[in-house]
Structures are given as structure tokens and as C-alpha cells.
Amino acid sequence: MEAVNLAEQLKTNGGETIIMTESGEKSRIPIRKGLWEQSGEGDVRLIGSSCLSCGEIFFPVQDSGICTHCQGDRLEVIKLSSQGVITSFSVVYQKPAGGFYGGPIPYSYGFVKLPEGVKVETLFTGCDLEELEVGMEVSLVIEKLCENAEGAEILTYKFQPVKIKGDKSNNVHTGGLNNETN
Amino acid sequence: MKPINQMREVVVAGIGTTRFNVYEDKQWFHLGGEAILNILKDAGMQWPDIQAAFCASVYQGTGSGHQAIKEVGLTGIPVVNIENACSSGGSAFRLAYQSVAAEIYDIVLVLGMEKMPRGPIPSTAFRPFELQMGFNVQPANYANETVEYMKESGATVEDFSLVSVKNRKNGALNPNARFQKPVTLEEVMASRMVAKPMRLLHCCPLADGATGFILCSRDKLKSASKAVKVASSVLSSGVYGDAFYPSALVDSVKFPAKEGMTEMSARMAYEQAGIGPEDIDVAQVYDTMAPSELWDIEKMGLCGKGEAPRLLREGKFNINGQIPVNTDGGLMSRGHPLGATACAQIYEVVLQLRGEAGPRQVEGAQVGLCHASGAGPNSSVTILKK
Ligand SMILES: [Zn+2]
């Protein structure tokens, strides 16, 4: 399975990976190193920081190594839960200013609250954007965001509904890497 | 630390502005120069009277204030450039106010200006991966905050559409506004969806412009009748645990802020002025997106939490209401030249307190409040007294 192959390659080099496809070699690059980690089984988790002094949790990892709540410097890297609840979202219908975003339009982003209590700003995927709702249960996937100038795929984290309302079929994507329909 | 309200009294001696509009043939320094000449004329002062200049802009780059000052002439005075996103003008005003209150200078210039960039805007307000993921769409960031506000207050899309209607009605009375044509509720509700649930007419338009002031000690005034007192001028640049989506800041669930940034800036401003929200006769509250006026009215303490939508419908915030809000049409009508916006709010309040606001005059206005907030995050509040 491609997802497993990719996971192993990500594990071994921790970043850029080369995927063999029918059309030849394709490079896949995470949007930023250290946002997520994938186990050999394809289990994907966002990576955060936890403060050993006050217990605050951050996503992404605190680059400074300092807890911005208590200024303590004893932080540990933790794996965050891969399911959460949408607390708010918007659907964007026009290209963002600045030319930084190369993904599809319209697109949706908002905030997901994880069981740990931390809120994550994220893109949404895996359903008709009009079906998104506050309170919806969503799970983490790693997907293509766009291609860079060299044709490499830029991967990012997104959340998708665990189950679409009125749709009885199981919509859970296990590895997430097979869903690149956008 | 000496409280600033125990220092020397500071007054606004003169005000000046350009019309806010889209100028293809003018740069920010042309607009800034034009505003300076208007300010000097209004104050009855000469350029060599100015002892220091505090210039606010966001996108103009290095030495942007100097370029505007050069339009009038370099005189050896210090020129300082201030960038604090949408609170830039309020931040420049605050520094100018402090420098006169502390008796470092007697007469200073505040200038806010912006020619909004066309095309790609380099952004330092977000981290690179946030930009790449498209998290820098301010209507969408406000939309996220709006979704939460709607949940908490029960406000509807129609409620914040009525903010656009009110402000565009007021803007029709403001010859300096970019848009001087009212809009109907139906037009707002039918306008193009930009970032669900925000439609085009919920978003303030782009505009270029410049606005500024001369602040001085009372003994330096040329025209005592024009003087408006600076009762307070404060800035808060964020509080731990307080969500501010326009800056990609999420709230802390473990350690939520006891007092949010906006509420803190309001409290500090009231404390410094020695008054309370009940004393405010007219307010300019930050309406970069229509719903933000509602929650910021509440955060300024002008009404209770969740009450703004109902009071708006009852007309409390109309020009002839109990607490008129955004009497000049707000950002929704003026447009939003970032560095100039907070200055335009102060300009309107000075006009109101002088009784020079013409058809949009609030009867007997004695005390006015201005609030601007944005990326950083920042929240600036200025209170002026007749
Ligand atoms: Zn801590």
C-alpha cells in the first residue's frame, strides 16, 4: 500500500520523500517539518508541546522551547489526538491575498478542539464544504495542498468529517494519503 | 511609574484629512502632505512650530513618514514611523500624547496614512506555513470569530447586516468617505459570499487616505475654542489565552484569559480618563467586518454581553440614538487605509465634540471613544473630552 510505503519513507528520512507513480517519480514535501508524525501502520498524529511545569499544550511545537503561559523551559514533545470537534469554520470563495496559497478554491478552514483541550487551526476536506457544521466530529488526514514550482506535492494536515450526516457509509480514511481528489 | 493622567494636560489643536478614496495617481506621501497642510491650517500653526512627528503606516516601508514630511520640508525634528497594523494610528497618537504629557515636547504631529498595495502583499502577520495554508484571509478569520459570537449571543446574519446598513447610511453624510451611498438590508444579504457567512457588504472596502492631528499643551493653542482634550490613549498588544483569529491566536482551554485584550484596553482607557462607559456620548468602534462592531461595542462596555444585536435594531447606535456608533460611516463607508484608519476615527470624534459634524452631528456630545484593533494583535482605545 502506498500509504505504508510513504509512512516508512517519512519515518526514515523525516521529510522529503520520493514516490513512484505511473507517471514516474514524484516528490512529496511536508509543508513544514515537525507538524505531524506517522507510524509505520499509517497512524498519523499532529505533534505539539506540553509544558511540564503548568500543563499547557501547544500546537505546533514551541520552537522557542519556552512555555508562553508560564515561561517555563521544560517542554516535552507530545502526540496529539487525531480526532476532534469543529468549533468554528469559514468557507473561502476567493483567492487569498499575497499569492502564498496554492490550494483549491473554494476551501474551508477553521478550528478543531482536540480532547487534550488545545485548538488547532486547520483546513477541512473529505466532504462537500457546504456540509461542514460546528460541532461535527472530524479526524486528521495528511493530504496534498498544492504543487510547488518544481511539480513536487506539498503535503499538509487537514481534518475531515468522521461521518457525513445522512451518509451511512463509513467515511473514515485510514491512512489519508489516498485522498487527493481536490 | 507615574500615572499619565497626573501629567500635563494634552489637547488636540488641529485636525486634517484627505478624502478616503482609491487614488491611482497619488502615493501615500502625496496624501500625507495634503493632510499635514490641512492640519496646520486647522490649528492655525506654522510648520516650524512642530517639534516631533509620529507617522503611522503599515505597508509603505522604510522611511514612509519621512517621505510625507519631505513634502512639507525637513526641519531637523525627529520623525518616527509606527507600524502596528490596524492600530497603527492609535499607537502613533498614544506616543505623541505621551511625549507632550511628559513635557518632552509642546507641539507634535500625528499622521496616519496608507496607499493600499495592489496585488500581492508581503505578509509578516502570519507564519509561513499559515500563509501557505491560506489562513491569512481576514474575512474568514473574522467569520470564525463571528461563528462563535453567533453561538454565544444568538446573533443572526441579518443582525450584522444591519451594521452595514447603519454605517453606510451614516457614510452618506460624510463627504470624506469612499462610499457615500446607502445600502439596503436586501442588498447586503444578497451580496456575493466572500468567506461564509461574510458577504461582500459585510467587509469594509479598500481605500487610500491620510489623516492627522497636532497635539499640544493648552498654553500653545492658537484657538482655544477648537481644543479637545485627550482624556486617555491606550494600547494593549495581546493577552495570554485570549483568542484573536485575525492573528491566528487560539484561546487556551486550560488557562483562558481572565480579561481579553479588547476588554483590557477599554478598561485601561476608562481608568485613565476617570470615567465609565456610561459617560460616552459618541463612539467609533472597529467595524472592519460588520459583526466585529457588535462584539466590540460589547467589549467597550457600551452595553452588556450579547445585547448589541437587539440594541442595534432598537436604534440605540444610530446618530440620534443613545450611544451613536460610527457616525461617519465607519470603516464600512470610509474604507480602510490601514495606517490612517484609527486617525480617521479620532478625526470624527474631534469634529463631533467641536460641534462641526454637520448633518451627522450628535447633539451635545461631550465625550467620545475610538477603538481600533487588528493583527499583532493590538487594540488601541482613545477617549476625547470637550
Ligand atoms: Zn507552562
Structure description:
The complex is a heterodimer of chains A (about 180) and B (about 375). By secondary structure, chain A is mainly β. Chain A has a single domain, classed as Nucleic acid-binding proteins (OB fold (Dihydrolipoamide Acetyltransferase, E2P)). Helix content of chain A is about 5%, strand content about 40%. Chain A is built from 1 helix and 11 strands; from the N terminus they run αβββββββββββ. In chain A, the strands form 2 sheets. In chain A, strands 7-8-9-11-10 form a 5-stranded mixed beta barrel. In chain A, strands 3, 4, 5 and 6 form a 4-stranded antiparallel β-sheet that branches. The longest helix of chain A is centred in the first third of the chain and has 12 residues. Chain A is globular and about 40 Å long. The N terminus and C terminus of chain A are likely disordered. Chain B has about 375 residues and is α/β, with parallel strands linked by helices. Chain B has a domain of about 120 residues: 3-Layer(aba) Sandwich (Peroxisomal Thiolase, Chain A, domain 1). Chain B is about 35% helix and about 15% strand. Chain B is built from 12 helices and 11 strands. In chain B, the strands form 2 sheets. Chain B has a 9-stranded mixed β-sheet with strand order 3-2-4-7-1-8-11-10-9, sandwiched between helices. In chain B, a hairpin with a 2-residue loop joins strand 5 and strand 6. The longest helix of chain B has 17 residues. The two termini of chain B are about 30 Å apart. At the A-B interface, strand 7, strand 8 and strand 9 of A face helix 4, helix 5 and strand 5 of B. The structure holds zinc ion (ZN). Zinc ion binds next to loops of chain A.
Note the beta-strand portion of chain A: 35-45%
Biggest sheet of chain B: strands, sense, closure? Answer: 9 strands, mixed
CATH topology heading of the domain at 4-119 and 209-213 in chain B: Peroxisomal Thiolase, Chain A, domain 1
What overall geometry of chain B do the principal axes of the alpha carbons give?
globular
Distance between the termini of chain A: 21 Å
Radius of gyration of chain A (Å): 17 Å
- The percentage of residues in β strands of chain B lies in 15-25%
CATH superfamily of the domain at 4-119 and 209-213 in chain B: Thiolase/Chalcone synthase
Tell me the number of strands of chain B: 11
Mean pLDDT of chain B: 96
